[in-house]
Write a structure and sequence with these properties.
- The chain starts with a strand and ends with a helix.
- A hairpin with a 3-residue loop joins strand 12 and strand 13.
- The protein has helices at residues 100-106, 109-122, 150-160, 205-215, 218-228, 270-284, 290-299, 306-320, 334-341, and strands at residues 5-9, 13-17, 36-42, 55-56, 61-65, 68-73, 82-87, 93-98, 125-135, 138-143, 165-168, 171-175, 179-181, 187-189, 234-236, 244-245, 248-259, 264-268, 326-331.
- Helix 2 (109-122) packs across helix 8 (306-320).
- The protein is of the alpha+beta class and 342 residues long.
- It contains nine helices and 19 strands.
- The strands form three sheets. The chain has an eight-stranded mixed sheet.
- This is Serine kinase.
Length: 342
């Protein structure tokens, strides 16, 4: 835990929190003046007692009071409380309260992601799994499944042209009118990512070269990560890879990257493009989470159920892409992607 920080995600949603969240530092230091506010608090001195009307499930109890869901799990062997509270999900002000033991036991990232997805949809924008660069005032959006070369393609394009603006490499926001909004998060650069040493902090170059050598073996990389929790990736701030970070831009082109075969390109109809991008987003930014589903069921607010959130996201995507040319790129490497996008 740390001092309370306020993030303003453009002018759509403000997030106040005293814990670390996967929100770009570029949004920190906000005024908290957005119409929709999410408060996320980790509290050590909170230990709610289930009332008589609490319902019991296999591993926990839960109860609803108004628009507030409280979930209480058995305490840890050291008697630390394990609890979560969600209030006002789907309203202009949403509050999440949890204990450190709940975070350690269940994690909080998926809950925050789902709540943020709902709040942004209420503001008329959708989180999508995509990166974007800006040329001549218009956004070129690159989307795919994970580890398909999206970040490598964006980094290569940025390295080749100082005139390109950067919006994000993995997540962007989009509204129904086709405006793209940046999500300039720190880049997680894996050993196989196409990044020049000049784009890395000087003190990290030697370490990165060693990691690249080890990273040539996907099996060894996976073993180090899952067995010893050794992550070979490097973190780069957006300013290290781009001359300019762009806040928003109208959508110009969309490319769906689909590697592993001979280079070719085909145009996708709006319905096909929407389905492809929505599916890739669902794989990486899935709002499905047990506690959010429990809230939707127990509170009777099905509008915030993850299945409904996905439909709402898909509707925004469909409207945004209605007049946009979307091309699917098949390629056997990043160079073919770059050539097609260039």
């Amino acid at each position: 835990m740390h001092a309370t920080e306020t993030y303003d995600i453009h002018d759509f949603v403000s997030v106040r929190t005293n814990t670390d969240l996967p929100i770009p530092d570029a949004f920190a230091g906000g005024s908290g003046a957005a119409d929709r506010v999410i408060e996320i608090e980790c509290r050590t001195d909170w230990s709610p007692s289930p009332p008589a009307n609490a319902r019991r499930l296999a591993s926990h109890r839960f109860w609803i009071e108004g628009d507030t869901l409280t979930v209480r799990y058995p305490s840890t062997p050291t008697r630390k409380p394990v609890a979560l509270e969600i209030s006002g999900l789907g309203a202009d002000r949403t509050r999440v309260l949890f204990t450190p033991a709940f975070r350690d036991q269940s994690g909080i990232g998926d809950i925050v992601e789902g709540i943020l997805t709902a709040a942004l949809l209420d503001a008329g924008v959708a989180l999508i799994h995509a990166g974007a660069i800006v040329e001549n005032g218009r956004a070129t959006v690159l989307t795919s499944m994970g580890r398909m070369g999206k970040t490598s393609t964006i980094l290569t394009l940025l390295r080749e042209s100082a005139n390109l603006g950067y919006m994000g490499d993995n997540i962007c926001l989009i509204d129904a009118s086709g405006t793209v909004y940046g999500w300039p998060a720190t880049l997680g650069v894996f050993p196989g990512t196409a990044v020049e040493d000049t784009q890395l902090p000087a003190g990290a170059r030697r370490r990165v070269r060693l990691k690249r050598l080890i990273g040539r073996s996907e099996l060894l990389s996976a073993a180090l990560l899952h067995t010893f929790s050794i992550d070979l990736s490097e973190n780069l701030p957006p300013e290290a890879v781009a001359e300019s970070v762009v806040d928003r831009a109208p959508i110009g082109r969309v490319f769906v990257l689909n590697g592993g075969r001979t280079a070719k390109m085909r145009t996708l109809a709006t319905d096909d493009a929407t389905a492809r991008i929505a599916t890739g987003t669902d794989m990486e930014l899935d709002p499905t989470e047990y506690h959010l589903s429990l809230y939707a069921f127990a509170a009777g607010d099905h509008r915030v159920h993850p299945s409904i959130l996905k439909k709402r996201r898909r509707t925004i995507l469909s409207e945004a892409l209605a007049d946009v040319r979307v091309q699917e790129l098949f390629a056997d490497g990043v160079a073919d992607y770059v050539e097609a996008v260039r």
